[in-house]
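#structure-requests
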Amino acid sequence: MKKEYVLAVFLALPILFLAFWLMRIECALNAEKTVIVRMMGYDPRDLLSGHYLYLRPDWSNTDCRQFDNGICPQGAPFEYSYRYYLPEFEAQKIDAQLQRSDLKVEMVFTYKGSAKPLVKELLIEGKPWADWFKQSVTQPDVP
């Protein structure tokens, strides 16, 4: 009987660890200040590698007033480039749209001073990518 309790505890530990880890990530995403950074630098020839967008911050077109002292933190703690993963079907459609037009692409980050910012959302034309995708798929393509 004692062996069964020990086994149950050892099986529960990884599950509890993962639950705690996910709770910490969720709290970090919701507790910190959010900032919106304009993105650029995607290469239409290699926009999607796998099922992600490869984007870089475009500090010259970002509203720097949302940061401390009104200065964009170009460089650390922000990375030089980011990957945003998408489902395969949506990734192919978004790839085609981005190659044909000059869309406004932004990322929402949680940001706290010198801590590494966490990507919270991808915005296309000011809307979450999934909402934008639903609208763009239902509208006919304009040559």
